[in-house]
């Protein structure tokens, strides 16, 4: 069953029960269409919408290996739809008692996955950017006079958020493999209050060396925040990863961000933030005149920058984790396949004459390029674009990749035989984040390798 329309009977059954619950409060007209609208009118606009939606790239299909995009798990979609008809708001316990409970349950599961003890503090957010903002906000409150540092491979929103927070931002240079310049960190250590380690960079999925950074943190006293928005769920299969040693120390970070809407099979609108020490909550405490309290329990809205948050997001994640728990045979089985797709692709590419693998995948993202006849950066950039565009010409036999730009200096250090006729080098990049990618890798690589370039 891979057609979403086939899940409708499941949703219909559950919605009937919700309708019954609604009528327990007495008959009302809230579920009726307003008098001026006919169901035909909705149908006709929906059909217009459906036509517009066809303008999307095929994010669902394994021929799409471009950006970090894929449809949610069907269970997440069903749960979200069901909960959304009630529209609970997890800004306060009373905004949605059951979905707030579900949020607490999933927060516990995620904190366990990270390896935090019961003294942690965490909640869902509407995404990774806001989750990181909370971490950086706490970072600034704890060390107001110091800077926040991250590598040049960190997500671009970190420097933006530092600007927003009026915090100094230090960009740490990286070497060819994406490893931070430790000497640079050491010489700037006195100025750094919190250092952001990216566990799976957005570009090429590089897992930064948390072990080295934690040793330096011990020596120099700075805090460490792990941005695991993309990579976080790979913690489940850490024993199978070359970066195992880094993941094993995740629990030593002062804060961690993980995006369930990236590798947690959720629809957009679901990030999460965790603090190892619950005392971070004191920076958020507020007494809003608008929120309404009927219990002394911790209100998730009290420890969050955002006010309204979709209770449906918590319901969707909770439902998904009942079916696919955070274990090796649960969600781990999905991640194992995505990584296996990437390593398989990397192997095939390394054996393919005329193609070069730019990075051995740490997670499930690869960078690569086809060698141009004349070895110059400009020529390579042209060939990369040619392949990228060729893939999108045929719906049935095509493919979708992304272009990735690197500084020419880095590229030339790796490939000194190339003429430096451009400041930016453009290579191809594939995110193999769907389990469906794994059985499709032979076919996909065949399609990519057979593109004729001039
Ligand atoms: C995606 C991503 C973010 C931003 O998260 P959003 O959910 O898109 O706001 C931050 N950091 C990393 C490493 C990411 O991959």
Short description:
With 454 residues, this protein is α/β, with parallel strands linked by helices. The chain is built from 15 helices and eleven strands.
Give structural notes.
This protein has 2 domains: 93-323, Type I PLP-dependent aspartate aminotransferase-like (Major domain) (Aspartate Aminotransferase, domain 2, 3-Layer(aba) Sandwich); 331-449, Aspartate Aminotransferase, domain 1 (Alpha-Beta Complex), CATH 3.90.1150.170. The chain is of the alpha/beta class and 454 residues long. The strands form 2 sheets. The chain has a 7-stranded mixed β-sheet with strand order 1-7-6-5-4-2-3, with helices on both faces. A 4-stranded antiparallel β-sheet has the order 8-9-11-10. It is 39% helix and 13% strand. The chain contains 15 helices and 11 strands. It is globular and about 80 Å long. Bound molecules: pyridoxal-5'-phosphate.
Indicate the radius of gyration in whole angstroms. Answer: 24 Å
Note the overall shape.
globular
Bound small molecules, deduplicated: pyridoxal-5'-phosphate
Distance between the termini: 42 Å
Q: Segments where pLDDT lies below 50 for 5+ residues? A: 291-296
How many discrete domains?
2
What is the CATH fold-level name of the largest domain?
Answer: Aspartate Aminotransferase, domain 2
Which structural traits does this protein have?
alpha/beta; Aspartate Aminotransferase, domain 1; seven-stranded mixed β-sheet; four-stranded antiparallel β-sheet; about 40% helix; globular; binds pyridoxal-5'-phosphate
Q: What are the SSEs and their pairings?
A:
Layout: H1 8-23, H2 39-53, H3 74-84, H4 97-114, E1 121-125, H5 128-142, E2 147-151, H6 157-165, E3 169-172, H7 182-188, E4 192-198, H8 210-220, E5 223-227, H9 244-247, E6 255-258, H10 260-263, E7 271-275, H11 311-323, H12 331-351, E8 355-357, E9 365-370, H13 377-391, E10 402-407, H14 408-414, E11 424-431, H15 441-449
Parallel strand pairs: 2-3, 2-4, 4-5, 5-6
Antiparallel strand pairs: 1-7, 6-7, 8-9, 9-11, 10-11
This protein binds pyridoxal-5'-phosphate.
